[in-house]
Write a structure and sequence with these properties.
Elements: H1 3-11, E1 24-29, E2 38-43, E3 49-52, H2 59-73, E4 83-89, E5 96-102, E6 108-111
Antiparallel strand pairs: 1-2, 2-3, 4-5, 5-6
């Protein structure tokens, strides 16, 4: 598989580093004659541009880190470590976020990318 095919496959599985959406426009950018070309993605939701490489993390790779982070933090309302985590996107606004549910007390908390920024580096 060449780099273009790898990037095309990868971009279908990555979340936007800003809004967690996964709808992108990707283009090849070659600015300087002496440097290699880069694949740049632009989020179709928030318009955030970023470089996509073969090392860019997919949601499957990020998910265990998010679960571990949320588990260490516990429920934001009661501190209970028994949590259920879901990833949701609003169809109308295309806003994406993690929904944390306390399994024992039924508390719900919304966790967006701002609360997980370090996980996406």
């Amino acid at each position: 598989m060449n780099s273009l095919e790898t990037i095309e496959t990868l971009v279908q599985k990555i979340p936007c580093p800003v809004c967690l959406n996964s709808r992108f426009q990707v283009h090849l950018r070659c600015d300087l004659s002496q440097s290699p070309c880069d694949f740049h993605a632009v989020c179709g939701h928030c318009r955030y541009p970023f470089v996509v490489t073969e090392d860019t993390k997919t949601m499957e790779e990020i998910w265990p880190r998010v679960q571990a982070h949320v588990g260490r933090q516990g429920c934001p309302q009661c501190g209970d470590p028994k949590l259920h985590l879901e990833f949701l996107c609003d169809v109308t606004s295309e806003d994406c976020f993690f929904l944390v549910r306390c399994t024992d007390h039924r508390h719900f908390s919304r966790l967006d990318q701002a609360g997980l920024r370090y996980l996406f580096r």
